[in-house]
Amino acid sequence: MKVRILVSLKPGVLDPQGRAVHHALEGMGFDGVEDVRIGRTVELDVADSTSDEALEKMCEQLLANTVIENYRIERLG
Amino acid sequence: MKVRILVSLKPGVLDPQGRAVHHALEGMGFDGVEDVRIGRTVELDVADSTSDEALEKMCEQLLANTVIENYRIERLG
User: Fold this and answer.
1) Mind telling me how many Å the CA of A35 is from chain B's nearest CA?
2) Rounded distance, CA B41 to CA A11, Å?
3) Closest chain B residue to A25, measured at CA
4) Which UniProt key words apply to this protein (chains A, B) (predicted)?
5) What's the number of domains chain B is made of?
6) Domain region containing A63
7) pLDDT in tens, A20-38
């Protein structure tokens, strides 16, 4: 089973990488970009029997830094 | 308008970060993990008038390295 985990910075947490990309897009002449935030994805191929609980534990313990990041788990089937 | 761009390594491209995460998950006792791939997301807040063409151009020119990466554009509305 494929699972995608989306990890993003919590609102209010400074995102220097996003600011750099925003700045670069403006410099390249792309208008109308108001905000840019960078996150990451972890695509897991796991056994079908893997529980939601196990996936959450992976996020809490390794994949996300829950002090500054939110995560969302999407089962892709 | 919110737009999410998912950037992932093309199949076959080595993903050392994914391998490290895979190894760590196994070391922590999570069974049944068969593969791990790490990607990134770029969440843009753009003007509603932004065309698909402009978004594709941003990806091709800055957000993705199309030699080794695929990207997918999702309009979140």
Assistant:
1) 5
2) 15
3) B58
4) ATP-binding, Cytoplasm, Ligase, Nucleotide-binding, Purine biosynthesis
5) 1
6) 2-75
7) 999 999 999 999 999 999 9
